[in-house]
Design goal:
Number of strands: 17
Number of domains: 2
Helix content: 25-40%
CATH topology of the largest domain: Spore Coat Polysaccharide Biosynthesis Protein SpsA, Chain A
Radius of gyration: 21 Å
Length: 362
């Protein structure tokens, strides 16, 4: 384990999980399952089984540094702060260069902070396979999840077909497709050679830095220290300038869609990105009518297949509703049809335009 490092990406807002997820307190810092642990706490605890505690780093927006420190036991040096959001390529470039400066032989496990993994022992087995592949041929490895439905909110990975598909098997990646429409997603699931892109990556620090330098040299050079900036008091000043000047682009578009050394480990370990209310729905208890209810004063009548999340003590009587999401948080009530949940982010944008003064108070 001595060469294993983890990068937890925790700078997102989680706007599709609004109104519970707010810019000042986003999804990764919430106990969305009602189990007494936040998503970032669960992610950290999971990674401690395969990475030494002092080699786990969190990259987050500077406004969340105190939240990170209050929820997981990291030193200040392990909390890397971004002055602004510039997507995952910048986040990964920063952490990879910093860790490479510490250990040029480092293996990196890059994981989002807000995902759910139910079968953790199986997850560890899959990560071990990915680490072996990353070390054997300087591969960039992603974990692919067998799709259970034609979800349009996920990216898809097409891999080289041939013979029976075995869980834990490594396949060469043919292409990535980001968030297809419903018709295309149905074709992907039916074909059998497309898996969901989990957004969990395993590679050597050296390999990802070389890949960034090949496909995004201008971005990479901003984070390639010209002296001894990393792990010194000058690091934050150096990083603030790098983020100010760098391109806003995901690691998928920056590297993975261009590289020829990308492989996927085919997996199924009870994964969900918990990116939407619908993805949370599959992990909640349901009544006989299919309603998933969080809140001790909610009364449902002639309603089915709804997701309801209201504060304890909030009395609600709901009648005649089918396939709705009903959420109250931070003095905001949202009622949206389930099949419109991908629009929540755009709805939030429109509401902010129409009532900016309300959000300034939050």
């Amino acid at each position: 384990m001595s060469n294993n490092f983890a990068i937890i990406m925790a700078g997102g807002i989680g706007s599709r999980f609004w109104p519970m997820s707010q810019e000042t307190h986003p999804k990764q810092f919430l106990d969305v399952l009602g189990i007494g642990k936040t998503l970032i706490q669960m992610t950290y605890e999971r990674l401690t089984k395969i990475v030494p505690d002092n080699q786990i780093y969190v990259v987050t927006n500077e406004m969340y540094a105190d939240l990170v420190k209050s929820q997981i036991p990291l030193s200040d040096a392990q909390i890397l702060t971004e002055p602004m959001r510039k997507n995952t390529a910048a986040c990964i470039a920063y952490a990879s260069h910093k860790i490479y400066d510490i250990n040029p032989d480092a293996n990196l496990i890059v994981a989002p902070s807000d995902h759910l993994i139910l079968q953790e022992e199986r997850f560890y087995e899959i990560v071990k396979v990915a680490l072996e592949k990353a070390n054997s041929g300087d591969s960039l490895v992603t974990l692919g999840i067998k799709p259970s439905r034609p979800d349009t909110g996920y990216g898809y990975i097409q891999f080289e077909d041939g013979g029976d598909i075995l869980m834990g098997e490594v396949r060469k990646v043919k292409q990535f497709t980001e968030k297809p429409n419903r018709e295309l997603a149905e074709l992907f699931v039916k074909s059998g050679d497309y898996y969901w892109n989990s957004g969990i990556f395993i590679w050597k620090a050296k390999t990802i830095i070389e890949s960034l330098n090949k496909f995004k040299p201008s971005l990479n050079q901003l984070f390639a220290t010209k002296g001894n900036d990393y792990n010194t008091p000058q690091e934050q000043t150096f990083i603030n300038k790098a983020f100010t000047d760098c391109e806003d682009i995901s690691i998928d578009f920056a590297v993975l869609e261009n590289a020829k050394n990308v492989h996927v480990v085919l997996a199924n370990f009870g994964w969900s990105d918990l990116g939407t209310w619908g993805s949370l729905d599959t992990h909640l208890d349901h009544d006989v009518e299919g309603n998933a209810v969080i809140g001790d004063k909610v009364h449902m009548f002639e309603s089915e297949n709804c997701i309801v999340n209201l504060p304890n003590g909030k009395m609600a009587v709901l009648q005649g509703l089918t396939d709705y999401i009903i959420v109250e948080a931070h003095d905001i009530l949202m009622v949206v049809k389930k099949d419109h949940e991908q629009r929540i982010k755009s709805y939030l944008g429109e509401v902010k335009k129409k009532d900016p003064d309300y959000f300034k108070k939050k």
